[in-house]
Fold each of these.
Amino acid sequence: KLHSDLDKGVGTVKYTLSGDGAGTVFTIDETTGDIHAIRSLDREEKPFYTLRAQAVDVDTKKPLEPESEFIIKVQDINDNEPKFLDGPYVASVPEMSPVGAYVLQVKATDADDPTYGNSARVVYSILQGQPYFSIDPKTGVIRTALPNMDREVKEQYQVLIQAKDMGGQLGGLAGTTTVNITLTDVNDNPPRFPKSIFHLKVPESSHVGSAIGRIRAVDPDFGKNAAIEYSIVPGDGGNLFEITTDENTQEGVIKLKKPLDFETKKAYTFKVEASNLHLDHRFHSVGPFKDTATVKINVLDMDEPPVFSKPVYTMEVYEDTPVGTIIGAVTAQDLDAGSSSVRYFIDWKNDGNSYFTIDATEGTIATNELLDRESTAQYNFSIIASKVSNPLLTSKVNVIINVLDVNEFPPEISVPYETSVCENAKPGQVIQTITAVDKDLSPSGQRFSFRLSPEASNKPNFTVHDYRNNTAGIETRRHGYSRRQQELHLLPVVIEDSSYPVQSSTNTMTIRVCRCDADGTILSCNVEAIFLPVGLSTGALIAILLCIVILLVIVVLYVALRRQKKKDTLMTSKEDIRDNVIHYDDEGGGEEDTQAFDIGALRNPKVIEDNKIRRDIKPDTLRFPRQRPPAEDNTDIRDFINQRLHENDVDPAAPPYDSLATYAYEGNGSVAESLSSIDSLTTEADQDYDYLSDWGPRFKILADMFGEEESYNPDKVT
C-alpha cells in the first residue's frame, strides 16, 4: 500500500505505478494506493520486481512528491521436486570387494530457494537394491553393503535411488533415478577339468605336427582371468607329444612331435596340467590355481608302406665295369603285423638313361651299361619299394653311386707346347718350366715324372730336369745357338704317372731360336729378320709395309675413279636409237666464259679454224683433218653453219647416228642473232612425212599419225 502525507482523503491525489511488471503482473488503485498482483507469481521464473510509484495532483497533473522506487520480492514455497540431471547412472565395482567399497556418487538438484526454509534441502535413500548397496543420505555416495559378492553368482544389479526435499520430512517432494551396477571379474576361480581321464585314439600314420586331440579345462572367470595355459607333465609322453592353447576356445590342442609306430608301442599315458596365466595375489589362500588330468592315447594300427633300412644308400663302382656286375643292394621291410613281401623298381622318371638295373625281389643293383668317369662321375636316382599285398603303398629312397677312376689316360704337357731360346744362351740355363695334366682322377693325387725320350738322349742341345714336384725344367746343354743353321729344335719329353697301370706319353716341345739382347730380352724370332739391317727393328718394318699398302690402295682408287668418270661421259648403248645430246659436264659463264666452247667463229666469222678435231665423239683411228677453204669476208652465219652440217653429213668417220653439236650463241647484242626455230619460215604444212614409213615397224605408229594429219589437211590440194 502506498500513501502520501499530502493525501487528505478527499480525492485530490492520484497514485501511479511503473517499472517491472507494472500493468501486467501488478496494478495499483489510483485513489487508495493499494498494489495488487493480477496473476500468479513464480520465484523460479523471477525472484523480484523493481517498481516506481508517484503521487500526482488530480487537477493539475503535477507530482506532489518525487518518484519513489521499491522492490517486491517473491517469497519461495516448496513447489519443485529434486531432479537427477545425470541419471540414469551406470557403475561398476570389482567382485569380492569388501563392505563399504566405493561404487558411485549421485547428485540431485532442487530449484527452490535454498536460503529460505527446507524447500531445497535434499536427503538420499535407496528404494531398491538393498541389502547389496547403501547410500549416504547427505552426499549421495553409493557403497557396497555386503562382502564377497561373486560375479559368477550374479553380475548385474539395478539400484533405485530417491532424493526428497524438506529434509525428508512428510510433505516433501521427491525424485528418483536408476543406477545399473556391474560386478567386474577378478581371478578368484582356478581352472578345473570336467573329468580326470581323457581317452584319445590316434592312427599310427598321423603326420608329425598334426593335431590328434583336444581337451578343455573350465574356468568360470571372464576375459584374461580365464586364460589357461596347458602343459604336459614330464613323463611317458613328454617326447612324443606337445600341447598348445587355442586362444579362441581356451582348449588344449595335443599335437604329435614324432611319428607313431603301432608295432613299437601301442599306448601312451601322460598327465596334462591347466593353470591360469594371470594370478591375483589376494586369492592365493583359496588354493592353487591349476588342475591336472590324465590323457590316455591308444595307437591304431594302419597299413603302412615298406621301410628302408637306410635313409640314403651310397655305393661305388669302377668305370668300365662289365655290364651286369652287382655293385650293391637296398633293403626294405614291411613292419605291419601281417608282414608282406616287398618289390623293388627304379624310378625311371629320374633315371631316363637306365645305366643300372635292380632285382625286383632281392633289391640288388647291377650295371646296365659301361660307365665312364670322365663323362659322369656320380649317379643319383631313386628306388621305390612297394608291398605285394597293397602295391599302392610305396616308399622311396635315394641311391648315390660314385664312379671310381681307372688309370686309362696318359698325362700330357699343359700349355705351352712351344718355347724359345736365345742365340747367346749359356749351358744349364732354364728356358721353360713345364707341368702335366691327367684326365684321370687319383684319390691321393697324381705324381708325374719327366725325362727325355731315348732317341733324344744322345743330342746335346737340350735336357729335361725333373724337380720331383710335378714340374720340370727345359735346360740348355751347349753354348750358343745359330738361327742360320737351325731355327727350330724338336725336343721329345716322356711323362709318366704314378697310378696303376702306369700310363706314359711322349710330348714334343718346339724350341725356336731367337735373337736377344744382352739382358736376354727377345728381339726377333723370324728367319727373315736375319737378313735385315741390324738397326731396323720389327716395328719399323711393319710401319714401312703399312705405308706401302696405303699408297697402293690410293693409286688403285684414283685409277678406278678416272675410268668410271670416262665411262659416264659417253652414252654407248647400242639399243638407244634416239638422238643423243653430248654432255660435256660444264656450265658456261656467259660471254666472259671462253673455256667451255670456242665461239670465236660465231663472233668473228673471219677466224680460220684449222686442224680442229670433233670433240663430241672419240675417233677410232687418228686421221688428218680435212682442209676447208677459209671463210670469206662478210660470210653469213647461216652459210657457215650449213657448211659445217654438210661436212658432218659426208664425214665417213662420223658415228652412224645423228650428233647434235651446238655452235649457237644467243643473247642480247649477239652477232648471230637468235637460232630458235620459233621464227622459222618453214611451217608444218611444208613437211613431208612419207619417209617415216621407210624406217621400219618401230616407227609405224608415228608414220600413221602424221599420215592421217596430212590426209585430213583441208588446205592441201590432191
Amino acid sequence: KARETLRNGALSALLRRAVLQARSALGPALDKATGTLLYNAAARLKDPKHLGFLVGYIARKEILTDLQLSAALEYVRSHPLEPLDVADFERACGVGVCITPEQIEEAVEAVINKHRAELLAERYHFSMGLLMGEARSQLRWADGKTVKNEVDLQVLHLLGPKTEADLEKKPKVAKARLAPAEKQKVAVVENGDMGTETKSLLEQLRGEALKFHKPGENYKTEGYVVTPNTMALLKQHLAITGGQVRTRFPPEPNGILHIGHAKAINFNFGYAKANGGVCFLRYDDTNPEKEEEKYFTAIREMVEWLGYQPYAVTHASDYFDQLYTWALELIRRGQAYVCHQKVEEIKGHNPPPSPWRDRPVEESLLLFEDMRKGKFGEGEATLRMKLVMEDGKMDPVAYRVKFTPHHRTGDKWCIYPTYDYTHCLCDSIENITHSLCTKEFQARRSSYFWLCNALDVYCPVQWEYGRLNLLYTVVSKRKIIRLVETGAVRDWDDPRLFTLTALRRRGFPPEAINNFCARVGVTVAQATMEPHLLEACAREVLNEQAPRAMAVLEPLKVTITNFPAPKALEVLVPNFPADESRGFHKVPFHQTVYIEETDFREEADKGYKRLAPGQPVGLRHTGYIITVQNVIKDVSGRVIELEVTCTKSDVAEKPKAFIHWVSVPLACEVRLYERLFLHKNPEDPSEVPGGFLSDLNPDSLRVVHNALVDSSVRSARPFDKFQFERLGYFSVDPDSEEGKMVFNRTVTLKEDPGKA
C-alpha cells in the first residue's frame, strides 16, 4: 500500500502534511487507528484546503471512527464556502457523543424483541444484517464491531448454537417478474457481447443509480469549481427550476442522426423522464456554412420517432445577442483577446503562444467590434479565451469570422461563436442541471467550468458517458457523403446505413432501438457492438408487433386440378398465430397458387421435407395437402409449373412439412439487404488498407423485382411492418406506388449463425 501511495505524488504530499500535523500534537508514534483515519482523510478529501481542519479533530481524538470521518468528509463537501460552522460540523460528525455498552445492549435487545417471532422461525437463516442496520440506525455513532458482537451474543443466547439445519444454504426465492413494458435486458458489455441482467432503461437512470448530483448540489461533484458566488448562483438556479432535473440534447444540424445519437437521445431524454425532469432539444447552429433546413426537420422527427417529446425546441442562435454581450465582458475582465494567428498556426497540441495574448483590453474591445462589423476577412482575426484545457490545448477560440448568412438570423452576424464558447453558456442560460455528453468532450470539462465561472454565471455540471459504435459500418457525415456521391448508397436513409432515418426505412421499430440502447447500458466505457445484437432486439419487438402475411420471392406456379370449388375460397389467417385473440385476415385461395421455387425439388434428397413427386406438403392455413401429378418445363428444361391434386388434411396422412403460398396475389418489389461492408472495421487501415470505399460488399443489396404478396397487405402504408411467413420481417418502403408495392427486408426470422 505504501509503494502504491508513493506512486501518487499528490496523495503522498497530502498524507505527509497530515502525518506531520498529527505528530506535532501526538508525538512521533501514531497508533494504527489514527494512521488509518489520516490516510483515509488524505485519500478521500476532495478539497485539500480542509485537510488541516480534519486532521486537528483526528489528532485530538474527537473523530475516532471511519463513520465519523465519512460524515466529516460529507459535511465539508456539502459546505464549500468558508468559514465552516464549527458547532454544526461537530453535531453532524458526532463529536463528543459517547455511546455506552449499556446503550448498545438495550438497543440490540429492542431490535431482537421486535423480530423475535421471525428469528425463532427462521433461526440463523434470518438476515442478521437487518438487525445490525436497525440497531445502528438508533445509535448512529456506536462502534460497528461492538454492535455486531452484541447482536451475535444476544442471538446466540436466544437460539443456542447452530444446528446442521442452520448450516444448510437457504433456497433461493424466484424474483417477481417485471411487467413487459418495464422489462428490457441490459448491461454488461464484454467484447461486444452482452450479459443478461434484466433492468429497464429508466431503472438504470432513476435516482441514485448513476451517482449523479442532485439539482442544486453541483458543488458535490468531483472537480466542480466553487467560487465565492457559487452558492448564490445555485440558489437563484433552484428558484427558477424548483429543483427539477433539466437535460438537453444538442445536435449540430449539419447531418442526419445515427445509431450513436440514439444512445445520446435515450440518455438525455431518459434521464430527465426517469427523474421527473425535462429535456430541451437545442440545435447547435453556430456554423451556418454546413446547416440545412432538412437536417433540422429530420433531427426533430427522429427524436419524436424514438418516443420523446422535447420540453422546448431551442437554438444556440436564440442566444447570439447574450453570447456577444458576454464575450465583451470576458474581454473587459482580461480573460479573452483578439488574435491574428492563422488557423494552421494554432492547430495541433503544441502551437506557438499567441504574440497578442497580452494586448490591452481596450485594443481587444475595439478589434472585436471591428470583427463584428466585417472589417476583418475570414481567418484574419479570432477571439480567444485565456485558459489551458485538460488535453494541453491552449487558448481555445471563442469567435471566428464567417461571411455566411445564417438560416435564422440572416446577415445580422459575420462572427459566430464556437462550440467551446457556446455550449456551456447555453446550458447556463437554460438552467441545465446535467450536461450529458460523450467521453471525447471530457477534455473540455475544465473550459466548461472555467468559462461559466469567469463570467460569474450559473455553472451546470458536465457528465461524460461512453459512445455507442457499431461494427461493419461508418457513421461520420463526411464518409456517408462520400458513399452517396460515389453511388454506393442512395442517400442518408439508404437502409444499409445505420442512420436513424435509414433504420426507420428498413423497418426497425423505435422500441427495438431504445431496447438496444438499454441493453448496451449507460456505460462510461465506449461500447462497440455487433449489428446482430440490434437485429435481435428488432426480432423481439417485431414478433409482437408485425402481423403475419404470406409472400413468395421466387414464384413457381401451381395449378390444383381438382380444386374443390368453382371460384376462389376465403381462408382465415391469424394475424398472430400465437395469440388468435388479436384477430384474423382473409386471403383468397384459388385453383392457381404460387409457391417458392425452392420449396419444390424433382428429387427428394434425404432430409428434404418439402414438395417433390411422391412427397406431398400442406398449404399453410388452408386445411389442404397437395400432391404433385405433373411437372411442366420450358424448352430449357426449367420447371415453370406444377399440376397437383389436393386432399383435405383431416383425411390424409400428415405431411412432413407445411409451406406458404399466395393466390390472386399482388405484384411487388422486395429489397434484401446484407452488410454494407465486408470487414468489421472498414475505417481501420490495418484491416482495410485501401480505405472504406474499397471494402464495399457487392452483395449488400439484392432486388427481387417480381415477387408476389397476398392481398391482405393492399392497404398498407409506408413503414407498416409485416412478418412474411418463413421469410422474415419486412417493411413497406416509401418508394411504393399504386399497383407496385416495395418492401424492405428488416431482418430474417432467425439470426444467421455466420454473422454472430
Amino acid sequence: MQVSSLNEVKIYSLSAGRSLPEWLSDRKKRSLQKKDVDIRRRIELIQDFDMPTVSTKIKVSRDGQYIMAVGTYKPRIRCFDTYQLSQKFERCLDSEVVTFEILSDDYSKIVFLQCGRFVEFHSQHGHYYRTRIPKFGRDFSYHYPSCDLYFVGASSEVYRLNLEQGRFLNSLQTDASESNVCDINPVHFLFAMGTAEGKVECWDPRTRNRVGLLDCALSSVTADTEIDGLPSISALKFDGALNMAVGTSTGQVLLYDLRSSNPLIVKDHHYGLPIKSIQFQRQLDLIISADSRIIKMWNRDTGKIFTSMEPEYEINDVCLYPNSGMLMTANEAPKMNIYYIPVLGPAPKWCSFLDNLTEELEENPETTVYDDYKFVTRKDLENLGLAHLIGSSLLRAYMHGFFMDIRLYHKAKMMANPFAYEEYRREKIRQKIEETRAQRVQLKKLPKVNKELALKLIEEEGEEQQVTRKKKQKNLPSLLKDDRFKVMFENPDFQVDEQSEEFRLLNPLVSKISEKRKRKLKMLEELEAQEQEEEEEPEGKTSDAESSDSSDDEKGWVEEVRKQHKLLRQEEKVKWQERFKEDQQTLLKPHFFEIKEGEEFRSFKDSAKKQKLMKKTLGDRLKLEEKLGMLNVSDTTVGSKQATFKLKKSEQQKKQQEAEKQHRQERKTLRRPASHLKSRRGRGRLFH
C-alpha cells in the first residue's frame, strides 16, 4: 500500500505494487509470493481487479454489491462481487464498448453502446438482444419514467429507443452538428446534451421541446485561461435539481445554476486536456474532476484545491463509491486503481477493515527520508567533528537529530576517515569472493563466530536426522540455515563469553562434551590451515571410551562445579584486597557541618536508641511507654480496654512553653498594682 499526502490529506493507493501475469500457474504465483517481499506485502482488495490490456469505463451498481468494468483486448466486461472480493463473471463482446449503463439495482439489466453503432442488451444469464442506431454513438442516458434511451453521437439528431414498446421513437432535432455527452437530471428528469460547438442544450422529455441553451465555450474563456481553438463539451453531470457541472475539451470545469446563464465558478486544470469525468461529493461540498493526467478535488463554492492525485498511467474514467471515501479509476493499463481517502468518508461495509488499517498506519508513521539530505544524530556530528554547526543554517533540527546536506556529509566523512572508501572497497571485494565461493561445492565449514555452538548444533542435527529416519518424521529446520539466527554466527558482538561468571558456573555440566568439541575444532582448524580440498572427519572413539566418558561426567560434574566456585571466591578475594589497599591509601579529611539556629547538638547515641526501639515489638514498646508515663491503659465497663497517649514534646516546644509561662507571670505582676489603685479610688469617692 502506497501512502501520499497533499494539503494534509492522506491518500492510500490500495492497488500499488507489482502484479502477477494471468498466464502464471497458481503454484508459480505462490512460490513468487514467498520469495518476493513486494508481492507478499501488497494489498489485493479485490482478486484479479484488472483487464488484459486497457480498461475504459467503470461503474458501481445501485445496491453497491457489484463493480462492473469494460476494457480490451479482447473487448469484454468483468463483474466483481464485493461481498466475495472476487470476480463474479466475465463476458467477451464483438466490438469495443464506448460506454454502458446499469439499468437495474444489480447486474441483471445492462445496456452497452459499442463502436460499430451497435446497442447490446444483457440480462442476468448473458446476451439478450442487439440492435443498431443510424449514426455512430458517443453517449446515452436512460429516462426512467418513460423507459426511453436517448442516444447522442455524430449527428444532429438525438435518437430515442423505447424499451417498453421495443421500437425507435421520433428523434429530437437539435441545432448542433455533433453531440459528445448527455445526462438526465435525477429530480425533474431534464435532458441535457453537450455539443461539439461548446454549447449545452436542455430538453423537456414530456413536450420534446428545447427549454434552454448555454454557451459554455464563451463562458470558459477568462483572463487567466489560454485556449487553443474552440472548446467543445466533453463531460456533463447533474447534482440535485438546480446544479450542473460542465467539462470542456480544453480543461475547464464550469459549475452552473440552472436559473442563470452565467457560471458560478470556472475551474481550470491547466493541462489543456479534455475533462473525462465529473463527480460530486456532497458531504464536504467537493467536485471531483479528472482529465487523462490528474484527478482534482476542489471546493464548489471557492474553487480552492482540496487535494489531487496523479496516477502513473492515463485516466479513462473515475468512479466514486457511494457514501464512502473509496475512489476507483479505469486507465490505460491492465491494473485498475483503487484509492481510499479517509477524509471523504468511511470505508465501504465490505472492506471495513481498511479503517483499522489506516488508523494503525497513522499511529505508527514511517520516518521520511530525503534523497538530498542525510539524517544524523548528535553523536554522529561529534564523530565527524561538526558539533559546532548545531544552531546554524547548515543543520535543520528534526526529532532526535538533524538533517544536513548529503554533499557536506560526504566531505566531512572523507576528512574524518580518509581510508573509509578503501575499507568499503575491500569489504565489497570480500563479499563478492564469498558469493562466488558459495556457488562451488560446499564443504563442511564452521562459521567465524561461535564455532563451538555451531559444532554442537551440527552434531545435534545429525542425531535428530537419525532419529527422524527411524521414526519416519519430518526433519526440523536447522538454526544455522535459518535467516533469523544468521547474525549470531556472523556478528562478533554475539560471541559467547567463556570467561563470564554465568558461563563458568553452567559450563561444568557440559565440560566433558565441550572437550570433545574442542578437539574436533582443533583438527578442523589444522585442516583449514593446510588448505586441503577434502576434509577428513576426526576419528571417533569406541563405545567403551564413550561409556567411560559418560560415567566420568556423572561422577565428576560436582567436582567441576566446586572447582569453579573456588576459583570465583579466590577472584573475589583478590578484588576485595585491591579495594582495601586503595581505601588505606586514601586520606580521610574531616567534614564540618553547621547546626541550624534554635537547634541543639545531640549525641549520636540517640539515633542508635531509636533504631533499637524500632526493632522491638509493639507490645514491648507499649510497656516501655507505660513506664515512662506516656501511655495510660484502663478498662471500660463493656470489657474492652482504652489507651490514651501523650505526645512527646521536643526541646523547642518545651522552651516555647516555658517562655509563655514566664510571660504570663510577668503580666500578672504588672496588673496587680493597677487593680489595687482602682479599688482605692472607688472607695474614696463613696466616702466623699
Amino acid sequence: MGRAVTVATCALNQWALDFEGNLERIFRSIDIAKSKGARYRLGPELEICGYGCSDHFYESDTLLHSFQVLEKLLESPATQDIICDVGMPVMHRNVRYNCRVIFLNKKILLIRPKISLANSGNYRELRWFTPWSKARHVEEYFLPRIIQEVTGQETVPFGDAVLTTKDTCLGTEICEELWAPNSPHIEMGLDGVEIFINSSGSHHVLRKAHARVDLVNSATAKNGGIYILANQKGCDGDRLYYDGCAMISMNGETVAQGSQFSLDDVEVLVATLDLEDVRSYRAEISSRNLAASKVNPYPRVKVNFALSCPDDLAVPTCMPIQWRHHSPEEEISLGPACWLWDYLRRSKQAGFLLPLSGGIDSSATACIVYSMCHQVCLAVKNGNADVLADTRRIVNDGTYIPEDPREFCKRVLTTCYMASENSSQDTCNRAKLLAEQIGSYHISLNIDAAVKVVVKIFSVVTGRTPKFSVYGGSSRESLALQNVQARIRMVLAYLFAQLTLWARGMPGGLLVLGTANVDESLRGYLTKYDCSSADINPIGGISKTDLKSFIQYCIENFQLTALRSIMSAPPTAELEPLVDGQVAQTDEADMGMTYAELSIYGKLRKIGKAGPYSMFCKLIDIWKEIFTPREVASKVKHFFRMYSVNRHKMTTLTPSYHAESYSPEDNRFDLRPFLYNISWSWQFRCIDKQVN
C-alpha cells in the first residue's frame, strides 16, 4: 500500500574546512542509512564545509570546494536510490545563501535557501549570509559546469518549495526556522506536507536540550506529521560543542533519539513510520483542516520516487519512546570531555598539562579530563576504530589499547602543583591525592626562587622593595606581589608543557588547560596572564555552583574520595602570606561578594539585559527578605565597579567551552566595551534616588 516510510537522520562530527574528512563522514552516514533500508537521508547544517567556517564563508574557495565535494557525492554509486539532503553555502545572483541541496540519482531536485538566519548569542549568520525573503517563490539556479557535467542539468529550482514523492510530501526547515515564531512547518503542514526535515548547527548549553526536544515534538503535536532533525556534533574548531541529539518525532511524540554526547564521528538514526498515522491524526483536528482549506500553496517539485515499498504490510514501524535527558552534572562530565578529546586529537598534541592547585576549579578540570579518559576507553571497548586510531597516535604506540581510564590518564594528563611560601600543606596534599586517584603524571615544584628573582630585579632598578599588607605594605604592593606569583605560574606551565615529555624521552607537546570559572571571569577575579591564560579552558563557561555539584557527582560516580576535602575547603587563591601556618585569604572575602550572588548578577546582566538601575530594581524584590534597599544598592554598585574595572581582562580570556548563557566571553558571545567610566555616575544617581 505504500504506507511505511523509512527515513534516516544523522549527527556528524564535521570540522570547518576539512572538506576531505567531511566528505568521508557524509559517505559513511549514507552507507549506514542505506544499509538500514532508508530511502531518505538528512545531514546537519552546512555539513559539506562545516558550520564554523566564519569569515571563510566570504572566500570563493569555500564555495568552490563545497561544489567539488557535491560533485563527488553526485557521481558516487553510494548515493544512488536514496534521496540525499546535504548542506552547503551557495551563491545565487551574487548573493550568498545558507542552503540545503537535495538530490537523487545524479539529479539535483531542489536547492532550498535558509529563510530565518540565527543571529544572536554565538551566531552571526547575517554577517555571511542573506535570508531568502521570497516566500513560496522559486527561481532558476544555473549550476556550475562541474555539476552540469555530472547531472546533465543546466538549471535547477532554487527557493521556497516542497518535494512531492509518489507517496508523501516533504518540506524543509533549517535550524533557526524551528525556533522562529512563524516557523515554516506551520504553513507547510497546513498545505499537506507530512514530513518536516530540519538540519541544524545547534550547540550545547547547560539545561538546553529539553527546549530543542520540546520544540520538535510541539511542531507536530498541533498539526500532525513526522519531524526529522539532524545536528552537528563535536568541536568544529572553536569554543562551541555541537551536541548531536538527532531525533525523529511523529504526532508530538519522540520515536528515535540520538546521543547528546559521544565520541562517534558518525551517528545515524533510522525509523520506519506509518504515513496513515499522520493522516488519521490530522483528520480529527477540525481547526487544522479549516485552516488548511484556505492555505496559500507551496510550489511543489515532483519526484518520481517513493520512500515506501508497495508491499509493506509486514514492515514493523517505530513506537514512541521516552526521551532521557542528562542531569546538569552529567552534561558537565560529558560535554567538555568530548570537546577536549576533539581538540586534543585534531591539534595533533600529545596530551594536557594542568596546573592543579588543590581547589575546586582545577580539580573539576582534572575530573573532566578523567571523564574524557573514561569515554575513550568505553568507545574503544564498543569497537570505535576511529577513537582507537587517534589514541594510538596521541600516545605514539601503534599497538596500544586503552582499557583502564587511570592508566590512559597517566599517558595524556600531566598535573603540576606549584607551591609558594604562601601555599598550605593541605592544598598540596589534596592535589597529590587527587592526582593519584585519577592516575595523572604528577609534578610538584616550588616557585619561590623565581618570585624572589623577579622582585629583586624590581628592587635593584627602583631601590624599593614591595611588601605584603600584613607586613606593612600598601594594597598596591600586596596586589603586585600576588600577581607576580600568578604570572610566574603561567610561564612555568608553558615551559613544562613544552618540555616535560622531552625530559621523559617522549615525543610531542602538551596543551595547557585553564581553570577560571564563568563567575570569576565575570567579576574579573583573576590575574591577567596568570594560570587562567592557557590554550583552552573546559570550565570557563561553567558557574562555581554547578562545578560544586559536578564535584559531588564525581565523588559518587568515579569514587574520587580526594574530592571530599576539596569540596569542604573554602576557595582561596593562596597568594597572600599564611597566618600561623593557615590560609587567611579567601575568594569571597577578596571579591566582596559570594559566588551565589555572582551567578545572579551574571544572569541579570546578560540574560536579563539589565544595567545597574534595572538590576537594582529587580534585586530589591528578589532579595527583599534578606537585604534592605540600601544594602542592595551597595552590592549592585560594587559589582558594576568591579565588572567594569576588570572588563579588559575578557579581551585576553582563554578560549573556553561555551556552556552558560551568561558567559562574559568577549570574542563573540558578549560584545561590550573594555574601557568604561567606572563611576557610573548617572546610573548610580538613579539608584540613589530610588533608595531615598
